[in-house]
C-alpha cells in the first residue's frame, strides 16, 4: 500500500507541476505576443503619428497599461483565491487572459475604424493585465503548496519556466510568419495569427487545470480557521512591510526582461536597422540562457535560500547594467547576442526563486493576495515604464544610459531583499 501511495503522490506532483508550467506558459505567451507586436506591428497600424519614435512610445504606452491593471487583478483574484481556493481562480484568470488575446486578433486597425482601434486595443490590453494579475500568484502557490519538504524552490521554479517557454512560442511564431510571409502579408493579416492561435493554447491550459484538486496547505488552513473577509485589508493592516519589501524585491526581474526583450527588439529593428528575423533569432537564442539559469536558481535556492540567490542575481545585474548600453550600441549581432544572453541569464536568478520567496512572506490565508500584489506592483515599477524610459533615455542621453536603468532596479531589489531578511 505504501508503494501505491508513493506512486500516486508522484503522479499528483507531475500533474501539479505540469499544470503550473503549462498554464503560466499560456498566460505569458499571450502577454509576450502583445509585447512583440507592440515593438513591431502596432506602432504603424494602431498609433499613427508624425515620427516612428512617437509611434513606438505610444505603442509602449499601451504595453504599460496592462502593468497598471495587474495589481487590480491581483487584488480581485487574490481575494477569491484566498477565500474560495486556488483552482477556480486560476481557471478564471486563464479564460480572461485568453479571451482578450483572441479578441485582439480580430480587431480592425486605425485605418479601418479610426481612433476606436487604439481605444479598444487598450481596453483589451487592460483585460490581459487583469488576467495575468491573478495568474502568477496562483500558479506559484499551486506548485509550492504541493512541494515535499526541501523542494519548495524547485517546485516554485516551474511556473517561472513558463516565461521562457511562452517567449519562445510567441517570438518563434512571429519569426516563422515573418519568414514565410511577405512584408505586406505580415502587416495585413499575418500578425493576427499568433493572437488567434491563443485559443488552442488556452483550451490546453484549461484541460490541464480542471483536473486539479485544491492544494493540501490551503485545504488544511481552511479547515483550521475561516479566511479573512477582506484579504487585501488584512494584508495592508498586518503585513504591509512585507508587501512593500516584496514589491521592491521583484523590480529587477521586470526591468531586465522588458529592456532585454521589448525595448531591445524595438531599438534593434528601428534605430539599428537590423533585420526583424535576425533580431528575433538572437533573442530566441538568448532566452535559452534564462531557462537554464532558472533551473540552476531553483536548485541553488533549495540548497541555500531564495533570498541569497536573488541577492546574488541583483549584484550581477548592477554590473551587467554598466556594459549593457555600450554593447547594444555596437550595432552588430554578436555583441548584442552576448549582452542579451548575459542579461537574461541573470534574469533567471532574480526571477526563478520568486515562486518560493514571495509566498513565504505571508501566512497561508493571505498568500494569494500578498504574493500576487507584491509581484504585480513590482511589475509597474520595473516593467511598465522600462521600454518607455529606455526609449526616452536614448533620445536625450544615448543608449549607454539604458543599462543604468537595470542597475538602479537591481539596487532597489537588493534593498527589498535586505529588508525581508531582517524580518
From TrEMBL:
> What subcellular compartments does it reside in?
Cell membrane
According to the lineage, what is the superkingdom? Bacteria
Q: Return the Pfam families for the record.
A: Sugar_tr
The regions listed as transmembrane in this protein's record are: 21-46, 58-81, 88-107, 161-180, 186-208, 240-260, 280-302, 309-330, 336-361, 373-395, 401-420
- UniProt-listed InterPro entries: MFS_dom (IPR020846), MFS_sugar_transport-like (IPR005828), MFS_trans_sf (IPR036259)
For the Major facilitator superfamily (MFS) profile domain, which residue ranges apply? 16-423
Write down the Gene3D superfamilies for this protein, in alphabetical order.
MFS general substrate transporter like domains (1.20.1250.20)
Query: What main location does UniProt list?
Result: membrane
Q: Which keywords appear in this protein's UniProt record, sorted alphabetically?
A: Cell membrane, Membrane, Transmembrane, Transmembrane helix, Transport
Q: What is this protein called?
A: MFS family permease
Q: Which organism is it from?
A: Sphingobium xenophagum
Amino acid at each position: 500500500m505504501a508503494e501505491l501511495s508513493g506512486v500516486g503522490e508522484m503522479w499528483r506532483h507531475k500533474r501539479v507541476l505540469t499544470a503550473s508550467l503549462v498554464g503560466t506558459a499560456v498566460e505569458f505567451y499571450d502577454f509576450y505576443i502583445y509585447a512583440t507586436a507592440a515593438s513591431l506591428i502596432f506602432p504603424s497600424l494602431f498609433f499613427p503619428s508624425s515620427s516612428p519614435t512617437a509611434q513606438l512610445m505610444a505603442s509602449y504606452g499601451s504595453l504599460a497599461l496592462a502593468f497598471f491593471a495587474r495589481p487590480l487583478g491581483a487584488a480581485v483574484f487574490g481575494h477569491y483565491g484566498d477565500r474560495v481556493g486556488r483552482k477556480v481562480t486560476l481557471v478564471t484568470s486563464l479564460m480572461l487572459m485568453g479571451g482578450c488575446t483572441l479578441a485582439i486578433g480580430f480587431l480592425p486597425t486605425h485605418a479601418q475604424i479610426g481612433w476606436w482601434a487604439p481605444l479598444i486595443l487598450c481596453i483589451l490590453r487592460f483585460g490581459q493585465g487583469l488576467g495575468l494579475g491573478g495568474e502568477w500568484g496562483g500558479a506559484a502557490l499551486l506548485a509550492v503548496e504541493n512541494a515535499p519538504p526541501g523542494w519548495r524552490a524547485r517546485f516554485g521554479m516551474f511556473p517561472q519556466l513558463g516565461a521562457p517557454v511562452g517567449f519562445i512560442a510567441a517570438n518563434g511564431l512571429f519569426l516563422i510568419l515573418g519568414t514565410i510571409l511577405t512584408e505586406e502579408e505580415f502587416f495585413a493579416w499575418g500578425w493576427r495569427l499568433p493572437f488567434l492561435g491563443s485559443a488552442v493554447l488556452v483550451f490546453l491550459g484549461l484541460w490541464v487545470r480542471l483536473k486539479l484538486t485544491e492544494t493540501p496547505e490551503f485545504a488544511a488552513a481552511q479547515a483550521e480557521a475561516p479566511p479573512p473577509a477582506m484579504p487585501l485589508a488584512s494584508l495592508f493592516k498586518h503585513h504591509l512591510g512585507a508587501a512593500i519589501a516584496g514589491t521592491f524585491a521583484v523590480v529587477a526581474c521586470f526591468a531586465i526582461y522588458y529592456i532585454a526583450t521589448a525595448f531591445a527588439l524595438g531599438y534593434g529593428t528601428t534605430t539599428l536597422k537590423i533585420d526583424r528575423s535576425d533580431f528575433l533569432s538572437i533573442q530566441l537564442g538568448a532566452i535559452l540562457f534564462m531557462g537554464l539559469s532558472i533551473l540552476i536558481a531553483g536548485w541553488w535556492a533549495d540548497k541555500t535560500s531564495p533570498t541569497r540567490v536573488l541577492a546574488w542575481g541583483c549584484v550581477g545585474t548592477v554590473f551587467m547594467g554598466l556594459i549593457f548600453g555600450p554593447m547594444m550600441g555596437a550595432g552588430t549581432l554578436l555583441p548584442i547576442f552576448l549582452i542579451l544572453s548575459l542579461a537574461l541569464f541573470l534574469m533567471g536568478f532574480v526571477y526563478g526563486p520568486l515562486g518560493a520567496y514571495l509566498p513565504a512572506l505571508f501566512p497561508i490565508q493571505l498568500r494569494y493576495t500578498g504574493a500576487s500584489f507584491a509581484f504585480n506592483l513590482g511589475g509597474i515599477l520595473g516593467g511598465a515604464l522600462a521600454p518607455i524610459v529606455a526609449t526616452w533615455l536614448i533620445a536625450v542621453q544615448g543608449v549607454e544610459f539604458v543599462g543604468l536603468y537595470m542597475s538602479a532596479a537591481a539596487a532597489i531589489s537588493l534593498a527589498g531583499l535586505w529588508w525581508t531578511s531582517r524580518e
